[in-house]
Every structure is written in C-alpha cells, then in structure tokens.
Amino acid sequence: MVKSEDGKKTRVNQWYLIFIGAAVALMLAISFVPRNSPGAMIDRIKSCFCSQEWLKYHGLVEDCCCEYETVDRINVEVLYPLLQQIVKYPFFRYFKVKLWCDCPFWPDDGLCHLRDCSVCECPENEFPESFRKASGTGLMPDKLVCQEEKPEAAVDRTVDAKAFKGWMEVDNPWTNDDETDNAEMTYVDLQLNPERYTGYSGPSVRRIWDATYLENCYNYPSEECQEKRILYKLISGLHSSISIHIAADYLLDEKTNTLQWGQNLSLMYDRVLKHPDRVRNLYFTFLFALRSVLKAKEYLEQADYDTGNPLDDMNTQLSLKKLLNDNQLLSACPKPFDEAKLWKGQSGPELMRQTQKQFRNISALMDCIGCEKCRLWGKLQVLGLGTALKILFSVNGNNPSAQRVQLQRNEVIASINLLNRLSESVKLVHEMGPSVEQMFGKIIGGPSDQSNHRSS
Ligand SMILES: Cc1cc2nc3c(=O)[nH]c(=O)nc-3n(C[C@H](O)[C@H](O)[C@H](O)COP(=O)(O)OP(=O)(O)OC[C@H]3O[C@@H](n4cnc5c(N)ncnc54)[C@H](O)[C@@H]3O)c2cc1C
Q1: 198 is in an annotated binding site
Q2: ipTM topping 0.95
Q3: Where does it sit, as one GO cellular component term (predicted)?
Q4: Which of 22, 97, 267, 312 has its C-alpha lying 20 to 30 A from 36's C-alpha?
Q5: pLDDT tens string 291-324
Q6: Ligand 1 mean position to 77 CA, how many Å?
Q7: Nearest-angstrom CA–CA distance, 354 and 415
Q8: Is 238 in the pocket of ligand 1 (CB under 6 A)?
Q9: Rounded CA gap, 246 and 276, in Å?
Q10: Predicted pLDDT of residue 176
C-alpha cells in the first residue's frame, strides 16, 4: 500500500518535472524563434502595439508582397538609418528645381492675391538676377520682394559653391517638367529646407488636392481599374506623408518671437491616423518606391556621384550599395511590389497611356502650389513618384526588361529623398501611432493641448 502510494507520488513528481521541463523548453524556444515566425510576430505586435486597434495593420500590405510587421522592422533596422545618412551627402542634398510657378490650369486663381503668397506671378523685374541662375546663392528672405510673408514658407537658396557634373538628360514620360538645365532652374539645399509646417492652407491648396484626386480613380468601379487605384493610393500615401511631416514639425506658436516648434499630435491623428486607409496607402507608397529603387539597383550602383567632394562621394556610393545589397532587407522583403501584374490584357497599353497623362497632369499641378517650400517638396516627391513609375514600367511600359533604365541626376535625387521622406513617416506612424490613437480616439483636444513643445 505504502509502496504503491510512493509509486504514485514518484509518477506525479515525474509528470511534474516533465511539465516544468517542457514549459522551460517552450519559453526558450519562443525566445529564440526567428523574427519572422508567427510566434515572434505576435509577440512583437503584443509588445509594440499596446492598442488592440493597431492590429488592423497586420498581414500583407494591400497590393504588395510584404507584411506591415516586416516593413516596420526593415525600416527601423536598415532603411531609415541608411537613408538618413545618404540624403545628407552633397549629391543627394542639392536639388535642381524651377521654383516659381506657371500654373497651367487656373491662371486666375489669385494665387498671388497677397503679395506675400508666392513667387509665381510677380513681374519679372522684381526678381533679383541671382534668383534665376542655376547656381544662384545666398538670396536672403528679406530681399525677396514677392515671397510669402511667412518666413517658414520661403526656400533658403544657400547652396554649396561646388556644383556637380551634369548627367544624361532623358525625358520622363510620367512627369511634366522639362528637366534640362536652363536659366529658370535653381539649386536648393534640401537640408536647409526641411519639409514641415509652413502655414499654407485654404481654398487654393484645397483646389490642388481636389484636382489631384480628380485625376484618379474616383469615377471608376474599383474592380475595373487596379492601375488607376494604384495611382490614387500613391497620391494618398504621399499626402499622408506630407501631413505626417507637417504634424511632426509644427509651428505651435506663431505669435511670439521665440518660435515654438514641436509635434502636433492631434493634427497627426485627424489627418492621417484616424483614417486607416491613409495609413495603409502610406505603407503602399513606401513599398512601391522601395521596389523601384531596388529594381534600379544596377543603374544606381554604377551611377556617377561626383560632386567634387571625393570622400563624401565615395561614401555616398558605398552607403547606397549597402542599402541595395542589404541581406536582411532582401531576404525579408525581396520584391516589395509586383509590377508585372499591371497593364495586362488588350487594354493595357491604352490604360498605361491614360495613366501617364493623368500623372503628368498631377506633376503639372505642382506648379500651382502657392507656397514655395511646399512647391519644392511637392515637385521633388512627385518627381520621385514619376521616377518610380518610369523605373517600374519602363519608358514604353510594354517590356520593362527590353531596355535598361536611364535616369537623370535629378530623378535619382528625387527617388532617394522621396524614399527617405516615406521612411520617416512610416517610422513615426509605427512608433507614435498606437499611443496617439489611444489618446485621440477617446479625447478630442485642441492642437496645443496635446502637443510636444520644443523651441526652435
Ligand atoms: C504637394 C503639396 C505639398 C504640400 N506641402 C506642405 C508643406 O510642406 N508644409 C505645409 O505646411 N503644407 C503643405 N501643403 C499643404 C497641406 O498639405 C494641407 O493642404 C494644408 O495643411 C491644409 O490642410 P487641410 O486640413 O485643409 O487638409 P488637406 O491635407 O489639405 O486635405 C484636403 C482633403 O483631402 C483629403 N485627404 C487628406 N489626406 C488624405 C490622404 N492621405 N488620402 C486621401 N485623401 C486625403 C481629405 O478629404 C481632406 O479634407 C502642401 C500641399 C500640397 C498640395
């Protein structure tokens, strides 16, 4: 009897030990599973995303070949740090742009109804000579007779004296601008002109966004126009990114002399986070731009990054190569977007021509933006998208592998800067989205109530 009691106890102890052992083994296994396995993914979602609501950004990004979780990881670990470095090198810092506008759509819009609104409709003789020169430098904001009144909206034209060699000029059928060097072009140092709040708002800008979206898919049933839907998503993703940058670097108090810049969380929530489709479109646009850069790998690796600064130029090429060949990136998300699915069927070429025309109109709309700094970033990013479209769908679009892509220097600069902007936005949304959603999903407060202040 006693013997059998002891036997029972021993068996119970054995089961107990087996159970503890198994639990320990399971815990060890969970902590060592590869980051991509479902267990690890759920763990990460649980630990990173406190809000259950945030689980809506889970699984494959629509129309893409990569998951939200993977995008966040490769962005934080690979893309964001490298891109932040790359855009600071001289090659990617100087962007050639025609800054005054010739809005082809509504000349009587009254963009310059205030003399402070824009440079675009002022008489030619009001512009200083250096304004027109490609290498025009050091135009001080107070000398600009017809700049926007708000200093934060004017572009700082200070550039490094060392310009860089010209590249091949090849037309981009997706964009409107003639990129050939001419007296109307000016070089702008992007690092001196961060994309942020400028105070540009009202009916004039609303008209631009409305016209941009009207060029899109609104009038088509969604199943009939995957290509047009993609154009809409690209614009919406870009719009989200612009809004995120405005919210992340916002002028909180315009009245005092000590400018208070900081985050405007309620704006971030109202304009982007509150609308899951806008967040999804941001991720889509990021993957689309990433795919185009990866597809142009061969070209980008061999391009000439000479700006007359040998060390910087060598580092530019090295950092870009590092990004284009990063194992973690290429194994986690080898083909972020599959362009081969588009423009199929008999109507493919015609659809492509229509879409090109629509995108060219969107590109031309950038000339209607009545705020100089917004126009600079609008033009750069739309050129970046146009370059992505050109890379992915080639010049004629029918047989992308038939011809090797040729890019202009400005297109390369725009592509990488666009990717960097999107990467910054995705990082901000990933890091701040859940808490901002939790905060504003419940409380609706004024911008200043919930803003993070910092002095300029
Ligand atoms: C190309 C461009 C660049 C700009 N750059 C700057 C800048 O650098 N700094 C700055 O301060 N201002 C910039 N602006 C202005 C800025 O984008 C806003 O238009 C402005 O702040 C007024 O905002 P809003 O609240 O009226 O909404 P807006 O952002 O103007 O949106 C207008 C309407 O578009 C729809 N919408 C908004 N977001 C999305 C989305 N992601 N997807 C689909 N639909 C959407 C909504 O119906 C919304 O009511 C830029 C404008 C343009 C056109």
Answers
A1: yes
A2: yes
A3: endoplasmic reticulum membrane
A4: 22
A5: 999 999 999 999 989 888 899 999 999 999 999 9
A6: 30
A7: 23
A8: no
A9: 19
A10: 74
Spatial distance between the Cα atoms of 171 and 5, rounded to a whole number of angstroms: 90
**66 compared with 178, residue with greater pLDDT:** 66
Q: What does the angle CA 225 – CA 429 – CA 43 come to, to the nearest 5 degrees?
A: 100
Q: Which atom belonging to ligand 1 lies closest to the Cα atom of 373?
A: 8
- For 328-362, how does the pLDDT look when each residue is reduced to its tens digit (9 = 90+)? 999 999 999 988 888 877 778 888 888 888 899 99
CA of residue 163 to ligand 1 center, whole Å: 33
Q: How many helices (H) and strands (E) does the chain have?
A: 16, 5
How many whole angstroms separate alpha carbon 364 and alpha carbon 382?
10
Q: Catalytic amino acids?
A: 371, 374
Helix (H) or strand (E) holding 260: strand 260-263
**Distance (Å) from CA 209 to ligand 1 centroid:** 7
Q: Verify whether ligand 1 is closer than 6 Å to residue 214 (CB atom).
A: no
| Atom number of ligand 1 nearest to Cα 198 | 11
- Any ligand 1 atom below 6 A from CB of 362: no
Which atom of ligand 1 lies closest to the CA of 235?
42
- Does any ligand 1 atom lie closer than 6 A to the CB of residue 377? yes
User: Which run of H or E residues covers position 253?
Assistant: strand 250-253
Cβ burial of 348 (10 Å; 0-12, 13-18, 19+) is middle
Regarding the beta carbon of 247 and ligand 1, being less than 6 Å apart is answered: no
- The tokens describing 61, both together, are 């990004």
* Comparison of pLDDT for 165 and 53, the residue scoring more: 53
Residue 48 CB partners (closer than 8 Å, separation 6+): 430, 434
